[in-house]
From TrEMBL:
Membrane-spanning intervals of the chain: 28-48, 86-112, 133-158, 241-261
Annotated organism of origin: Phenylobacterium ferrooxidans
InterPro entries: MetI-like (IPR000515), MetI-like_sf (IPR035906), PhnE/PtxC (IPR005769)
CDD domains documented for this protein: TM_PBP2 (cd06261)
Organism lineage string: Bacteria, Pseudomonadati, Pseudomonadota, Alphaproteobacteria, Caulobacterales
Keywords per UniProt: Membrane, Transmembrane, Transmembrane helix, Transport
Family (UniProt): Belongs to the binding-protein-dependent transport system permease family.
Protein's recorded name: Phosphonate ABC transporter, permease protein PhnE
Domain ABC transmembrane type-1: 82-265
Calcium in keyword set: no
Keyword Membrane: yes
Record localization: Cell membrane
Predominant localisation class: membrane
Topology with respect to the bilayer: Multi-pass membrane protein
């Protein structure tokens, strides 16, 4: 904005162009409160430079012992664990998508128009969405024992409410004109969903499922650390015995697998868009 335009705007709308003293004081107060809250959190969490410097020496020693990375002669076992981790992520994602599909249909305003039921259903999904996969894994491993079964169910339980919410939003944003056309042809409500709505939302839902598959492949490694199998279990074993050369080898191999899966998933999502 030029100086002449600014002066003209100031004459036409001085309140909009020049903040009042009270408004400036309020903004300054909010900034001061935000900075004070951040400092208080850092103090409470002991985020001091001394703590960082104290840990850097030990971190340097661990890093020095990690080179050169080595598979420790267990490459077949590591590859098997990686395959198990992907299988956990894939199975958990498929189970979550199958369970979330009917829940997403029920959670859409265009399907269930009763406001009270819709509100209650969405709040239940929000409540379950607050439980992360790691917490589910801890509970399920305690119930069913060590192994990938608990990890698969934990991933599915953590994904179902989020996918159901995304599915319901995709259904709500669907174009009404194809639905009206199918209804005008005398189709049943099920056929309306099948031929009027499904072609619109299926690519969106498939893209969302692929994105959750990427995320679950990363999360599955964390679940393995608490006993849910997969590559996380192999990492936990080697960290416990300070075999950081093998830890870095597994991390590097895992990063390559994650990057490859992300690339494939991204290409598939582009085709579905």
């Amino acid at each position: 904005m030029t100086r002449e335009n600014h002066a003209r705007a100031l004459l036409l709308a001085p309140q909009a162009m020049r903040a009042s003293g009270a408004a400036r004081l309020q903004r300054m107060g909010l900034v001061v409160l935000g900075v004070a809250a951040f400092v208080a959190m850092c103090i409470d969490l002991k985020l001091a430079p001394e703590a960082m410097l104290a840990g850097m020496d030990k971190f340097g020693q661990l890093t020095a012992g990690a080179f050169p990375p080595s598979d420790g002669g267990d490459l077949p076992r590591i590859l098997k664990a990686l395959a198990e981790t992907f299988a956990m992520a894939f199975a958990g994602t498929v189970l979550a998508a199958l369970a979330a599909l009917p829940l997403g249909v029920l959670g859409a305003k265009t399907v269930v128009g009763q406001p009270v039921l819709h509100f209650a259903f969405r709040r239940v999904l929000d409540w379950f969405r607050g439980v992360p996969a790691l917490v589910w894994a801890l509970i399920l491993v305690s119930a069913f024992g060590l192994g990938p079964f608990g990890g698969v169910i934990a991933l599915a339980l953590a994904d179902v409410p989020s996918l159901a919410k995304l599915f319901s939003e995709a259904i709500e944003n669907g174009d009404e004109r194809p639905l009206e056309g199918v209804r005008a042809a005398g189709a049943s409500p099920l056929m309306v969903l099948r031929y009027g709505l499904a072609p619109q939302v299926t690519p969106i839902m498939a893209s969302q499922v692929l994105f959750f598959l990427e995320s679950n492949f990363r999360n599955a490694a964390v679940l393995g650390i608490v006993g849910a199998g997969g590559i996380g279990f192999e990492l936990e074993e080697r960290i416990r015995i300070f075999a950081f050369d093998q830890v870095f080898f597994i991390i590097g191999l895992y990063m390559i697998c994650v990057a490859a899966l992300d690339t494939v998933s991204q290409q598939l999502r582009k085709r579905l868009a």
